[in-house]
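User: Could you write out the 3D structure of this protein bound to zinc ion? I've included everything you need below.
Assistant: Certainly. Input first, then the structure.
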Amino acid sequence: MTNSKNVLFYVFGKGSLNELPLLIQNKRTKADDYCIYFVDRFLAESPVLGSLSKMENDLLFFVDTVDEPTTADINRVYSEIVNSRKTHPVVIVGMGGGCTLDTAKAISNLLTNGGRAEDYQGWDLVRVPGIYKIGIPTISGTGAESSRTCVMTNMEKHLKLGMNSEYTIYDQLIMDPGLSKTVERSQYFYSGVDTYIHCIESLGGRYRHAIGDAFSYQALTISREVFGAEDMQDEGSREKLMVASYLGGCAIANSYVGVVHPLSAGLSTVLKTHHCIGNCIVMNVMEEFYPRETTEFHHFLEKQRVTLPTNVTANLTDEDFNDLYEGTIIHEKPLANALGEGFREILTRDRVVEIFKRM
Ligand code: NAD
Ligand code: ZN
């Protein structure tokens, strides 16, 4: 039986970022206590930085999102912290999108468990709780704020997998819809639709969980309101999407994804395509696996006047297509969830290549 856990505490609402100083202050009990902040690079020049209540002996890392986090990136940051002898912070704060939230989660686990990031890629490999951590999402959709994983790519092993553990879950969230106001329109759509895709995949799967389903149904209802709205980015919609993202992350802790995520992971290992846009590129051609949802997704694109890249696999070699196939089929759990244990007979190499060629 799954013993499920969700985020323990959260503050929600416009302006809730103002709660951060107090939450941090509660943890600073000694004069030399310090915190480590991971902040999305887009905020480097923003007045929001002033809300962090950063003190002189705190560490601040800006997280770049040009590429999604790799195990090597996490190990490099970890070494930097070890070298600066700041391995016992009282709080870790992650503020940004999924890349930043996941980086903060991974470092929190490494600081108490030791070793290397790749040692914990998998299920329930983290041995002891990480450093107390506060997550502050600035873009909605992946559910990284509420999920029990932190996704990292291991380049040597061609493996995109997180530290899936109850210890990876944030201890505290601050969900302030005011923060997602500045997200660029297409990015807002790509990331936001990740919630929708997570939910249709888990509801369409074989491993169901009554509470996971309930989270998914509600997240789906809200996602449909947002992407069917005239303006998916107005204040009300941003607030709704933040809720849907949170619920979607809770849902995924109790279930698995389906066909879309493995194909998207294939794209990301070969073309470095980012998670959310990759999912959209895949979802666009999912008629045979998710017919109704693919049509609905096309309506979302049209309604929100968002376009997707096309011909993304046009210049690939046979060897690339092999890698795309391998990078997809390695994801046994979600594929078995969607298609049953015989998924390899359904997703033959030829069929997978044919799907990729339509993207
Ligand atoms: P991201 O971190 O990739 O950021 C996307 C872009 O939006 C970046 O350019 C970033 O700087 C920008 N951005 C973020 N907030 C902004 C704001 N308020 N205003 C302006 N720009 C802003 O975003 P994402 O799509 O949330 O995350 C993708 C990552 O999450 C991937 O690495 C993926 O593997 C991971 N992921 C994690 C989980 C999980 O459960 N942990 C689930 C799905 C995906
Ligand atoms: Zn996803």
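The first strand starts at residue 9 and ends at 12.
User: Perfect, thank you.
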